[in-house]
């Protein structure tokens, strides 16, 4: 094996060597041509002004309420992120075997698909799926699948919880 053959083989097996690179280059070239044509044909014409409506003046109390609302929204986003991380941790550590088995089966299926099909076909299938997801023929099944995935995700507890009640010394009469 000569020096540089490894790099050549790597580029031969690259999934994007056929047409995707040309498509990306064509897209960039088209964008440049569009910019040049726009500049050429709009020379000397004023650009339309943007009209921005200023927010109404707020007193100190309204400003504090707006800041408090923004902080509570950020706290909610952080809490949702933490719950998501705990759920992924629970799946990976098989805390809940039924959900972890389904997740492992999906990962195995995805791994087999990636091992059997070339990556460029997987990318094309993904693009086709995203492009046709809300078409009339697939809208109902896509929504049903999304609803099932949402229900499955919400059925996974973030962490195992045990409710420990203190035992009362008093006897109930």
Automatic annotation (TrEMBL):
What Pfam families does the database record attribute to this sequence?
DUF639
Question: Does Transmembrane count among this protein's keywords?
Answer: yes
* Keywords linked to the UniProt accession: Membrane, Transmembrane, Transmembrane helix
Q: Which InterPro entries match?
A: DUF639 (IPR006927)
Q: Where are the transmembrane segments?
A: 20-41, 103-128
Where does the UniProt annotation place the signal sequence? none
Highest taxon above the source species: Eukaryota
Does this UniProt record's set of keywords contain Oxidoreductase?
A: no
Its protein name is: Reticulon-like protein
Q: Whose protein is this, by species?
A: Linum tenue
């Amino acid at each position: 094996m000569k020096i540089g053959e490894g790099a050549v083989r790597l580029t031969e097996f690259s999934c994007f060597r056929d047409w995707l690179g040309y498509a990306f280059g064509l897209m960039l070239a088209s964008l440049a041509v569009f910019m040049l044509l726009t500049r050429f044909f709009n020379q000397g014409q004023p650009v339309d002004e943007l009209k921005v409506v200023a927010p109404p003046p707020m007193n100190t109390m309204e400003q504090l309420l707006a800041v408090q609302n923004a902080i509570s929204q950020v706290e909610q986003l952080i809490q949702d992120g933490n719950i998501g991380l705990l759920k992924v941790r629970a799946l990976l550590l098989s805390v809940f075997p039924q959900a972890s088995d389904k997740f492992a089966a999906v990962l195995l299926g995805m791994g087999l698909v990636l091992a059997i099909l070339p990556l460029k076909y997987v990318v094309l299938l993904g693009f086709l799926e995203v492009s046709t997801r809300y078409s009339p023929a697939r809208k109902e099944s896509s929504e049903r699948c999304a609803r099932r995935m949402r229900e499955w995700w919400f059925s996974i507890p973030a962490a195992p919880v045990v409710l420990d009640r203190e035992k009362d010394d008093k006897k109930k009469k």
